[in-house]
Amino acid sequence: MDHFEYRDGVLYGEEVPLTRIADEFGTPCYVYSRATLARHFRAYSEALGSHPHLICYAVKANSNLAVLGLLARMGAGFDIVSMGELERVLAAGGDPARVVFSGVAKQEAEMARALEVGIKCFNVESRPELERLDAVAGRLGKIAPVSLRVNPDVNAGTHPYISTGLKDNKFGIPVDEALAVYQFAATLPNVRITGLDCHIGSQLTELSPFLDALERLLALLERLRERGIEVQHLDLGGGLGVPYRDERPPAPFDYATALLERLARWPGSEHLTLLFEPGRSIAANAGILLTRVEYLKPGETKNFAIVDAGMNDLIRPALYQAWQAILAVDTRQPRDTATYDVVGPVCETGDFLGKERMLAIAAGDLLAVRSAGAYGFVMASNYNSRPRPAEVMVAGDTAHLVRRRERLEALWAGEALLPDDEEAH
Ligand code: LLP
């Protein structure tokens, strides 16, 4: 459930009509709902009840400081994949002791900074990374807490670009090799084994791949135990899907219940802290992209609704053929209904937000692209020299500008002309 609903024919974000946001902040513009973010976060923490747990929100899904700050105040931890994400978490008031660091290509400087601020854990994805981390920690006189990200080789049944837990993917350590790598880790002087981690993919709509992965991780924990290696936490990654259209993914409650049921049969599980790294399931349906129709262009075979947001603002439809609902914001005026491809201003045929959508619209109308709170703004680019959109967070009857629209000068800030050169004349 989210807090974007029609009232008397106008789409609202919480108590704020989206028409007002467009008037005040312009379009295109991302709008997030604070109550929805909070509700989604609580769905996880309440589902886990008294079992020791930490919800490490995946910063990559939506890294706006207002989003991170809200979740930090609610007690969230964070899953980061870069120094930039770490600094954002710190800038938003997040607790470094609740940060886990994922990613296949951690650089020395990133490791050093994470050790300096004292993160909870490095999710190590390979043996060479372990060696590098040991060396960096040794130089700094620190002990690095680690969990190994294992690749359990389960099919998440999701889009191939966002499936990460198969043998063929670049992520994690194959589950069959993990035992040896753990034993190697145990010999390193500057790392301390604290956990076991996996992340099998994103937008999962079934529980069975998660449970299959859990089964493989528990089997591995068993073997580690036999060799005297104990972990304090089990990190199951992110990946729970959301309804974009007619998907019916399990709710966090069902997910947590199924996991806890299985874990209850595992000796010692009450001391095993559960970590999760949800991104999409917290942020996606807590946001929309607000855009205005510039032109309607009827055609022989297709009608186009040309809007002021493009693939540079929201790339998911172009990149993954993702389907996101598109709604007219103000339905009070009578309009003819027609089927449109909703396309952006970018000079690419792939620049669409939705295809074959039935809409009752006229030029100048506002549209809302739903489920845009995750992997929306964070994947925006400046292609076609288009400034990135504004971001607004509604909270009750107030709309807060949480990132102003990028200014034109920002597009070339940091660039330089060549020095005057005779040969150019
Ligand atoms: N943890 C790790 C290690 C991850 O790689 C990811 C996402 C997450 C957690 C969060 O997963 P979530 O709960 O959001 O499914 N851009 C794509 C999604 C890429 C996901 C990458 N990894 C999209 O727009 O669909």
From TrEMBL:
- GO terms of molecular function: diaminopimelate decarboxylase activity; pyridoxal phosphate binding
Pfam families referenced in this protein's UniProt entry, alphabetically: Orn_Arg_deC_N, Orn_DAP_Arg_deC
- Sorted UniProt keywords: Amino-acid biosynthesis, Decarboxylase, Lyase, Lysine biosynthesis, Pyridoxal phosphate
Residue stretches making up the Orn/DAP/Arg decarboxylase 2 C-terminal domain: 29-373
This protein's pathway reads: Amino-acid biosynthesis; L-lysine biosynthesis via DAP pathway; L-lysine from DL-2,6-diaminopimelate: step 1/1
As cofactor, the record names:
pyridoxal 5'-phosphate
Q: So where does pyridoxal 5'-phosphate get bound?
A: G239, E277, P278, G279, R280, Y375
Q: Does the keyword Cell wall biogenesis/degradation apply?
A: no
Q: Name one GO biological process term.
A: lysine biosynthetic process via diaminopimelate
Q: What class of enzyme is it?
A: lyase
Q: Which SUPFAM superfamilies does this one have?
A: Alanine racemase C-terminal domain-like (SSF50621), PLP-binding barrel (SSF51419)
> Record-annotated residues binding substrate?
R280, R316, Y320, E348, Y375
Q: How does this protein assemble? A: Homodimer.
Which NCBIfam families does the annotation name? Answer: lysA
Per its record, how is this protein called by name? Diaminopimelate decarboxylase
Source species of the chain: Halomonas ventosae
Identify the coding gene.
Answer: lysA
